[in-house]
Specification:
Number of strands: 11
Shape: globular
Strand content: 5-15%
Largest sheet: 5 strands, antiparallel
Low-confidence stretches: 1-64
Number of helices: 18
Helix content: 55-70%
């Protein structure tokens, strides 16, 4: 327990150090200096409550009577079972196994002491957060504890994870590039989840994609479509898209690139009001309508900190938001600004996170993880991703309007407007592609002129 306290205290001391830097050196808040803060990582610190679950667990001694009994039960269920896990996380580990009928499966097994340990760790975390609050009243971190209390029990229920997997599979069945492993309910419990085994490379592994002739840009577009559909259209969002949970492969039958989505324990269900306001906000950000950016940011709880909120959502500087995030490409200078300025605005970030709807916290984390994947693939902030988001926003807002009118004429009018707006986006995308082809042709012509082929 003392070791746990030391680790969590170390995390807390980092927060205190950052706050000390601010309190000592920062006196003014200039929106033009706002770096886009990767706030998802702040939310991800909920993992501190379970960081060393694995190291605190004692495995069954090899060769003991308990070990032999466990092995005999496993062989009753499986033809073979790999003792070495494919992957180990704080809550569980996954083993590869073969059923007696020959099917290869993945078995996700929860660490035995996780449930008992989690309540103690959350209590310790709450005490430390309250201590920070006493020392620095300006900082609000209680949202971190609240989110941990709400989300951890859901992640510990593997039957809930199985239901989420089936729901998202059905919800996105029109995407032929998405694969969600099938759940074997007959051998699953709250602490053991049996699912179809699907292999692949991690979504941020460019070498794997190049070796297997998988188009990086295509995968990035597919990922954007999938998450835009979840967030803006359905309001049911997979909130843990780190590379270990998102695999890529070529379909064994068709040879087409496919995304495999794993680990469905953590989802965010968005209310309709939140989802529609979020749609409006992203539409405003994409089309640089700053008046509406302010309006919908404030509707989502940002208040006077709406410039910081816009930067956090887009991972761009305030200057870039004003110029248009779909127009100004991300530069190394801007990324450096983001990293350098992040700590300076910790108190404002803390206050903002304490006021936005709780649903926003996991969305921010999800946005951050997706941007990390795009950065690794070299496709960050492409025009294609913004156009896909805009399409989903248009569809979601049109569907809401049609649902709330009884007039056939009005519904027809909304459908026509929706079709026209989608056509405009398609035309804009076509123009961008033509410009890209012309540029490529000019570059090719220049190369041929500079380096003519030998006669």
């Amino acid at each position: 327990m003392a070791r746990k306290a030391l680790k969590i205290a170390s995390w807390t001391s980092m927060a205190l150090a950052a706050s000390g830097i601010y309190l000592y050196g920062n006196k003014y808040l200039d929106p033009n200096d706002f770096g886009a803060v990767r706030v998802g990582r702040a939310v991800a610190t909920t993992a501190v409550i379970s960081y060393d679950y694995l190291t605190s667990l004692k495995s069954v001694p090899y060769g003991s009577e308990e070990y032999l009994q466990l092995r005999s039960k496993i062989h009753d269920l499986f033809q073979s079972f790999d003792d070495t896990p494919l992957g180990t996380a704080s809550l569980a580990q996954v083993h590869k196994a073969v059923l007696h009928d020959g099917r290869t499966v993945a078995v996700k097994v929860q660490h035995p002491k996780v449930r008992a340990q989690s309540s103690k760790d959350i209590l310790l975390m709450e005490v430390l957060v309250l201590a920070v609050k006493q020392l620095f009243p300006e900082f609000e971190f209680m949202w971190l504890v609240d989110e941990a209390k709400k989300n951890l029990p859901l992640e510990l229920d593997f039957l809930n994870e199985g239901r989420n997997a089936e729901k998202v599979s059905q919800m996105l069945k029109h995407f032929d590039f998405l694969k969600v492993p099938r759940i074997h309910w007959d051998l699953s419990t709250e602490r053991v989840l049996l699912m179809e085994f699907v292999d692949g490379g991690q979504v941020n592994d460019r070498d794997y994609m190049e070796k297997n002739k998988i188009d990086v840009n295509e995968i990035s577009r597919h990922l954007g479509k999938m998450y835009s559909e979840m967030i803006f259209v359905n309001g049911f969002v997979h909130c843990d898209p780190h590379p270990g949970n998102v695999l890529v492969r070529k379909h064994p039958g068709t040879g087409k690139a496919e995304i495999v989505l794993l680990d469905h324990g953590l989802y965010q269900v968005l209310t309709e009001e939140f989802r529609l306001n979020y749609c409006h906000l992203w539409q405003s950000l994409i089309w640089t309508d700053m008046k509406r950016v302010k309006e919908y940011s404030q509707r989502l709880g940002a208040g006077d900190l709406y410039p910081l909120f816009a930067c956090m959502l887009t991972a761009r500087s305030w200057d870039s938001v004003n110029r248009g995030i779909s127009q100004a490409p991300v530069t190394a200078t801007e990324d450096l600004e983001i990293r350098n300025n992040a700590a300076n605005y910790l108190p404002q970030i803390s206050r903002l996170l304490n006021h936005v709807p709780r649903q926003m916290l996991l969305i921010l984390k999800t946005n951050d993880l997706l941007r990390g994947i795009e950065a690794a693939l070299g496709t960050r902030a492409s025009a294609s991703s913004f156009l896909n988001m805009s399409r989903c926003c248009i569809r979601a807002l049109a569907e809401h309007k049609k649902k709330n009118t009884c007039s056939f004429f009005r519904r027809t009018q909304i459908s026509f407007s929706e079709a026209f707006n989608l056509w405009q986006i398609n035309l804009h995308e076509l123009i961008l592609r033509v410009k890209g082809l012309k540029l490529a042709y000019r570059v090719l012509a220049l190369i041929c002129w500079l380096f003519p082929a030998p006669l």
